[in-house]
């Protein structure tokens, strides 16, 4: 097979708009960065008081140990949650473009913002030993073609200099989409849906594991993941999420 340099260059030029960002993903302003400095300042430069356990914004409901009332009354299985931003326009478009638009080039952008949020709050939590991602079921992975949580976790692990174990967790069965269920149905939908892979059944004991996901809504999925890791002896579980919704209890 003869390699045609001209065709290769032509193909590369056609793909350059996808490979190199030419405008801000949020406001459309021209530039070399995926998110311009103005949008970073406007949407990601404002520290908020958040519940240390579920990352809900504290609006006069927090107590001395930094937890919201919900987490005090019904503590989730995870120990901490770090969120880069609230799930509100226009930042929610980054998640939607990655998750449903297949814009994988945004994954490192989200990872960078998550890393910044973690380092900003490092005084409240220690760096994890391992990083993993919430696994997708086979059917959904086949339909989407990728796991958005894992796509974020890959560059995040590199940025933090921590080992990534994408196969630490397994989905034991397919589950219905959480968004399609009522609150009281969500926990039953996820019960025993996850397991620690046999290769890690012994070595996960005593570890501080960070679990990456794109959005925390009610927290039911991350709660079940954390409960699974704790059953296998994990000492601590921290959620690293890009966005946190403004509603929903972080356990149910």
Automatic annotation (TrEMBL):
CDD domains: PRTases_typeI (cd06223). Signal peptide: none annotated. SUPFAM superfamilies: PRTase-like. It holds the Pfam family Pribosyltran. InterPro entries: ComF/GntX_DNA_util-trans, PRTase-like, PRTase_dom. Residues 149-247 form the Phosphoribosyltransferase domain. Belongs to the ComF/GntX family. This is ComF family protein. The lineage of its organism: Bacteria, Pseudomonadati, Pseudomonadota, Betaproteobacteria, Burkholderiales.
């Amino acid at each position: 097979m003869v390699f045609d340099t001209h065709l290769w260059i032509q193909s590369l030029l056609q793909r350059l708009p996808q490979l190199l960002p030419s405008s801000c993903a949020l406001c459309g302003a021209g530039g070399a960065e995926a998110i311009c400095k103005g949008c970073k300042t406007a949407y990601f430069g404002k520290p908020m008081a958040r519940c240390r356990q579920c990352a809900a914004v504290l609006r006069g409901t927090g107590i001395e140990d930094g937890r919201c009332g919900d987490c005090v009354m019904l503590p989730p299985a995870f120990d901490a949650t770090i969120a880069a931003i609230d799930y509100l326009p226009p930042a929610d478009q980054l998640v939607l473009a990655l998750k449903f638009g297949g814009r994988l080039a945004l994954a490192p952008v989200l990872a960078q913002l998550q890393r910044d949020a973690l380092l900003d709050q490092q005084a409240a939590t220690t760096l994890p030993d391992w990083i993993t991602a919430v696994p997708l079921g086979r059917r959904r992975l086949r339909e989407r073609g990728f796991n958005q949580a894992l796509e974020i976790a890959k560059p995040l692990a590199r940025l933090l200099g921590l080992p990534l174990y994408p196969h630490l967790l397994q989905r034991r069965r397919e589950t219905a989409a959480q968004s399609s269920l009522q609150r009281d149905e969500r926990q039953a939908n996820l019960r025993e849906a996850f397991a620690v892979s046999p290769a890690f059944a012994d070595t996960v004991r005593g570890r501080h594991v960070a679990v990456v996901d794109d959005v925390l809504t009610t927290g039911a999925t991350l709660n079940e993941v954390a409960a699974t890791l704790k059953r296998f002896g994990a000492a601590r579980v921290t959620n690293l999420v890009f966005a946190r919704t403004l509603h929903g209890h972080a356990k149910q």
